[in-house]
Design brief:
single chain; alpha/beta; 9 helices; globular
């Protein structure tokens, strides 16, 4: 039994924080897990910037409402779900993800949650579990599943390396250089073919 585990941002939808950086005119918010491997450090940095500018969940949701899946992403996901189980494992937050899941046909997603004050200020965040992507893959393996994983960022490497087959998708040149043993793809058709091949081996 196989489960394919996919990252969300950068793989199926554009990076939410980059989109919000552009919408808000705050270039510091462009930094993502492609740039900063330490997620706690990255989130504290983001929350400090939001507080400084008086921005909160409502403003970010306005940006998310305008984000569409990457061209071909829903079709890729539909075809993948037709041949086996798929879980999106993301370090995003449930408050961000819901509108995007609707546009992707409501796939299963495991993600984290934000702590939000009544006025919409994001005061903190709660991780589902430590090293959530790797921990989830290990948990799936412990109940009898083989995992196949794909993502684009530093925080995806744990689940990719721990899986029976793992692939980089639209990753950075630096990550591809650091992990030359990982097959890297740019097109959904190539990633789909690689996943199908891994399932059939």
């Amino acid at each position: 039994m196989y489960i394919t585990c996919l990252d969300l941002e950068g793989v199926l939808v554009p990076e939410i924080w980059i989109a919000f950086s552009e919408a808000s005119g705050i270039p510091e918010l462009r930094k993502t897990t492609r740039d900063e491997p330490d997620y706690d450090k990255l989130m504290k940095y983001r929350l400090a910037i939001l507080k400084e500018h008086g921005l909160g969940l409502n403003e970010i949701r306005e940006t998310i409402a305008k984000i569409d899946p990457m061209p071909g992403a829903k079709e890729f996901l539909d075809e993948l779900r037709a041949i086996g189980q798929v879980i999106i494992i993301s370090d995003t937050f449930s408050q961000f993800a819901a509108p995007l899941m609707e546009k992707l046909g409501w796939p299963t997603i495991f993600c984290n949650s934000l702590e939000v004050a009544e006025n919409g200020e994001i005061t903190g965040y709660k991780m589902r579990c430590e090293k959530s992507k790797l921990t989830t893959v290990r948990a799936l393996q412990s109940i009898g599943f083989e995992t196949i994983a794909s993502g684009d960022s530093y925080n995806d490497l744990g689940m990719i390396l721990a899986s029976k087959a793992g692939f980089l998708f639209r990753s950075t040149e630096q990550i591809k250089k650091d992990y030359p043993e990982l097959p890297a793809y740019e097109e959904y058709s190539d990633l789909l073919a690689a996943i199908k091949n891994a399932i059939n081996q």
